[in-house]
Every structure is written in structure tokens, then in C-alpha cells.
Design brief:
There is one protein chain. The protein is mainly alpha-helical. Helices cover 67% and strands 0% of the residues. α4 runs antiparallel to α5 and α6 crosses α7. The longest helix is centred in the middle third of the chain and has 23 residues.
């Protein structure tokens, strides 16, 4: 009998597929093992807990988002256009993850407690926004420490909108540009 080759990356890809099609709640160890065509016990050879699996899925999926954000940044675009692209990518990515994306803004979640990659991720997301903000016309002569603070406030505004949308995405992007650029 031929042995099936399974990697952590393949298991993460299956988990993301389950989350995107069926939602976060459906991404159980049993469902993942079934999707991968392996026994549940075999799955525990790769991930000793469901929490560890979700943390790895979370971190790798957000690394892809960071890459997408950095690839989208363009100095030829206005800061307003770059902010719009940044927000739209985040909104789209979080919607696509059906629950996993919102974990980034839940500080009390046990998936991310004491998770150094989580804090690195937050820094990378803020840094992506910082590159845009420092090119805003009203921000060009501000010291880096002020740009850092503005970037963190703008990022918190984006995360708040994702968690509790109170205006349309387009209106939010316009408000964000008026406040921070």
C-alpha cells in the first residue's frame, strides 16, 4: 500500500479550504483528517492540538495577506488610492476567512495567547499602513515617531471597522483618508 505524503503546509491548505467553504466552526480535527484522507490519530502526529493547528493556519494565512499588501503598495498612486487598496484587501481577506481573520483583533483569544508571531503580524500590518501614511501630503514633514503613532491609530480604526462596521466600506475609506492623510 502506498503511503500518503502529508505536510504541515498541506494540512494548513486543507484547513483554510474548510474555513473558506464551511466556516471556522467546521474546521475540526475530525473534518480536517477526513479532508486529508488520514486518520485523526495521524493528524495529531502533525499538530498536538486544534489550537496549535489554528494558530499555524492563522499565521501563514496572514503572512500571505502581508505579502499581498506589500505587493499592492505603489508610489505612483496617491496615498488615498493606496489606503483604499490597503483597506479593501484587508476587508476582502477577512471576509474570505469566515471567522479566522477576525481572530487578529481579538486580544483575549486562546488561539493567540502569548503568540510572538501574532505581535510580529500586527507590526507588519501597521508598517504596511505606515508606508502609505508617511507619503500623505499633511504628514511629509512629521517625525517618524508621530508617523508611527498615526499609523497605529489608523490601523486600530481599520480593525474597529472590520469588527463592528458602522458605515459602508467606501465611506470608511474616505473618513480614514480625511483623518490620517
Amino acid at each position: 500500500m502506498r503511503k500518503k505524503i502529508i505536510t504541515n503546509e498541506l494540512l494548513q491548505a486543507y484547513a483554510i479550504e474548510i474555513i473558506k467553504t464551511e466556516g471556522l466552526e467546521a474546521c475540526s480535527m475530525r473534518n480536517l483528517a477526513k479532508k486529508a484522507g488520514i486518520a485523526v490519530g495521524t493528524l495529531y502526529n502533525y499538530y498536538d492540538s486544534h489550537q496549535k493547528l489554528l494558530a499555524d493556519v492563522f499565521n501563514s494565512s496572514w503572512e500571505q495577506t502581508i505579502k499581498r499588501l506589500s505587493d499592492s503598495y505603489n508610489l505612483r498612486k496617491t496615498p488615498e488610492e493606496n489606503v483604499a487598496v490597503y483597506c479593501k484587501i484587508l476587508f476582502e481577506e477577512i471576509r474570505e476567512r469566515k471567522g479566522l481573520g477576525k481572530e487578529v483583533i481579538k486580544p483575549d483569544t486562546n488561539i493567540l495567547s502569548n503568540n510572538a508571531p501574532y505581535f510580529e503580524l500586527m507590526d507588519k500590518l501597521t508598517d504596511s499602513l505606515k508606508n502609505i501614511i508617511k507619503h500623505g501630503e499633511s504628514n511629509k514633514n512629521l517625525p517618524d515617531s508621530t508617523i508611527d503613532m498615526i499609523s497605529k491609530w489608523a490601523f486600530l480604526a481599520v480593525m474597529s471597522q472590520i469588527q463592528n462596521p458602522d458605515v459602508s466600506e467606501e465611506d470608511f475609506i474616505q473618513q480614514l483618508c480625511r483623518r490620517f492623510l
